[in-house]
Amino acid sequence: MRQLQLVFILALCICPAIWAQQLDTLAPDSGPDGRQLKLWLTISARKRFVEISWKNAPARDGDQVLLTIQDPHTFELQSVPTGTPLAGFAKSRNSDSESESEESSGSGADQVAFVPIHGYTTPGTVAKADVIPMRQQWGSNGGNNQIVAAIKPSQSAQWFTTGVPFDYALSRNVTTHSDCYGYWASYIDDHGRILAKTCIRAHPRWMTNWHSGLGDLRLRDLFIPGTHDSGSYRPNFDPLLRESLVTKYALTQDDDIRGQLLHGARYLDIRVGFYRPSEEKFFIYHGITKQRPLKEVIQQVKDFVQETNEIVIFGLKSFPWFGKNLAVHHLLVAYLREQFGDFIVHPSLTWHATLRDIWKRQQNVILAYDKSEVVQQYPDLLFSGVDQRWGNVQSWPRLERHLRYINDFDVSRFSSRPVVDMAELTPETWDVILDKDGGLRKMADNVNWRISQLYRDELGEHANIVAADFIRGTTLVETALEMNRKKMGH
Ligand SMILES: *[C@@H]1O[C@H](CO)[C@@H](O)[C@H](O)[C@H]1NC(C)=O
Questions:
Q1: Could you say which residues form the signal peptide (predicted)?
Q2: β-strand 224-227 against 194-201: which pairing, if any?
Q3: How confident is the model over 249-262, as a mean pLDDT?
Q4: 171, 172, 173: which to mutate for ligand 1, most atoms within 8 A of CB?
Q5: Atom nearest to 172 CA in ligand 1
Q6: φ, ψ for residue 154 (rounded to 5)?
Q7: 3-state class of 186 per DSSP?
Q8: Domains annotated on the chain, with CATH
């Protein structure tokens, strides 16, 4: 066990180095713009810590990446009393305590001088009371902007899990008018100059904001962020308090549907099951576990598109407990028609339709139904299912190979039917029973930062829909928007 952990830690430690190297070889002379310093903020799945990542950083002596709770306009040096005890971040390379090792297996992992400034500690671990002899430290906005974490960048591209817990109550306050909220990250040099900054942000209207630029494109032409098993969330769930074997392998998202849409997802992976005993007949299923009522999911999609006029692909598939004949499908389609009503995009538009064609009809929800016998019978309601490219793999090397393969040998590139890269690991049944993988959150933390890197550095340009578990732990939305902006020629 000890040995395994060591190997794991070692593997994680060399990752940023490899990553940095890849960047150098991939973008050797891509002008000043291609080498622009960029920062991202994400949220880890398992412990919901704020994560900070960057690329193209100068990583000079004296540079720092600072996490604040408001938009920073200035950074200035302040003197602080000597001897102020700071909570050391319990994450040292040679540590051998169980909880710390587990910490190191978070999303990205690396060891640098990292001090959570106001004593944030890792839940479940005892903070080491490193007494840092006090001197000057950075303040922001004249001392009015709290700095909660500081990192010394040592590589041009890195990904860190901070010890700062993200409170999902912040996300529940997001509206269709929100932008930045909660946390900001700034990369500053030794003079306190801000070289780049970012924030945790919602993207409630990215399509309509770019209405004219995107109008001529089809959904197949865009990079569309999606969520895997979108309805497998639990309102107000806290994995640090209530995790069980069932929640560990059933839940795939932390935001409800509205939250997913507000944060930029436009493809939903909806697995509807039939549950005869209850009055409410249709539920979202993950495998055989019953999750949210379909009605709740539909209501949130309707409210969202009504407020924003965004376009959403509602991808229906799987259909557990529907039985052998199509009777239950007919019930479901009738239910979808009744619930979505005028929001349903008319299938006569076909997948060839541009966003402008869709907006012209004032319809917003595409019902992509993954059962052709049913689609044929409802030419006024249902689009054919999108092509989900699922690897059914259990490790990052195999997931990476799968994602590269489906993008490199994309036989459907000339079709207008959207394709979905399923960018998540899938545990095997026995591994779930034995809890071998530690749960979907742990698996997501293991791959989400790598998926983020793969799409932003390599696959993003040609990707169509990418669906991930715990999408808040990825930079897929930011990458999608960046790629789409390029497509409209900005
Ligand atoms: C959410 O908004 C309410 C009302 O404005 C506010 O009282 C509350 O503190 C907010 N919650 C968080 C976590 O910011």
A1: 1-20
A2: unpaired
A3: 97
A4: 173
A5: 1
A6: -115, -10
A7: strand
A8: 2-201 (no CATH), 206-487 (3.20.20.190)
Instruction: Specify whether the CB–CB gap between 432 and 442 falls below 8 A.
Output: no
Structure tokens that stand for 72 in this block: 């920073």
Tell me if residue 123 falls in helix, strand or coil: coil
Asked if pLDDT for residue 90 goes beyond 60, the answer is no
DSSP character at residue 155: S
Give the per-residue pLDDT at 170: 97
**Residue 356 Cα to ligand 1 middle (Å):** 37
In residues, how long is the chain? Answer: 490
Identify the DSSP state of 457: I
Give 169-199 pLDDT, tens digit per residue: 999 999 999 999 999 999 999 999 999 999 9
* β-pairing verdict for 180-188 and 194-201: antiparallel
Question: What is d(CA 157, CA 233) in angstroms, rounded to the nearest whole number?
Answer: 32
Q: Please give the model's pTM, rounded to 2 decimal places.
A: 0.85
Q: How far is the CA of 254 from the centre of ligand 1 (A)?
A: 18
The burial of 471, by beta-carbon neighbours within 10 Å (0-12 exposed, 13-18 middle, 19 or more buried), is given as buried
Give the whole-angstrom CA distance, residue 109 versus residue 72: 26
Q: Is 334 helix (H, G, I), strand (E, B) or coil?
A: helix
Question: Which protein residues are within 6 Å of ligand 1, measured from CB?
Answer: 167, 169-170, 173
Amino acid identity of residue 279, one-letter, is E
- For residues 448 and 454, what is the distance between their CA atoms, to the nearest angstrom? 10
- Atom 12 of ligand 1: nearest residue by CA position: 170
For residue 205, which phi and psi values (nearest 5 degrees)?
-135, 40
Phi, psi of 457 (to 5 degrees): -100, -25
pLDDT above 70: percentage of residues in the chain: 81
Question: How remote is the CA of residue 119 from the centroid of ligand 1, in Å?
Answer: 23
